[in-house]
Amino acid sequence: LSQRAIIPASGFYEWKRDGSRKQPFAIRSKEHDLLSFAGMYDVWKDENGEEVTTFTIITKPSEGAVRSIHDRMPALISEEDREEWLDQESKDPERLKGMLLGTKDEELEVYEVSDKVNKSDNNDPGLVEGVR
């Protein structure tokens, strides 16, 4: 696990299948703090020799309230672990794995949102508001 990254996010969406319908849910910090998604990055050269930086978000089995919606979720790095996660000298695999599995479900809120989030043309701050 070298080239580790943190991807900041205000939250994320997951969809729960209900028959033929998929209901979107917003998941975010109860305190509305930024979440720190665990990630990995790479820098490579394209066919023109230009450097391209790419990243991926690490996922893990979901837990708590998220589990009832989806079987996977982003691995979240706690505020206390951020600096160590980014420290390329930190190489203990068990410690790093522990950081990935340390999400506290009680710190997240999960709620239904409008299915308007299903269409990428919709770009409105109100999309994160709960419904029902």
Automatic annotation (TrEMBL):
Q: Name one GO molecular function term.
A: lyase activity
Which Pfam families does this chain map to?
Answer: SRAP (PF02586)
**Enzyme class name:** hydrolase
The protein's matches in SUPFAM superfamilies, at most eight in alphabetical order, are given as: BB1717-like
Q: Keyword Heme, does the record have it? A: no
The entry's keywords = Covalent protein-DNA linkage, DNA damage, DNA-binding, Hydrolase, Lyase, Protease
Domain of life of the source: Bacteria
Q: Which Gene3D superfamilies match?
A: SOS response associated peptidase-like (3.90.1680.10)
Q: What is its EC number?
A: 3.4.-.-
**One of the GO biological process terms:** proteolysis
UniProt cross-references to InterPro entries, sorted A to Z: SRAP, SRAP-like
For this chain, the family text in UniProt reads:
Belongs to the SOS response-associated peptidase family.
Protein name as it appears in the record: Abasic site processing protein
Give the species.
Candidatus Dojkabacteria bacterium
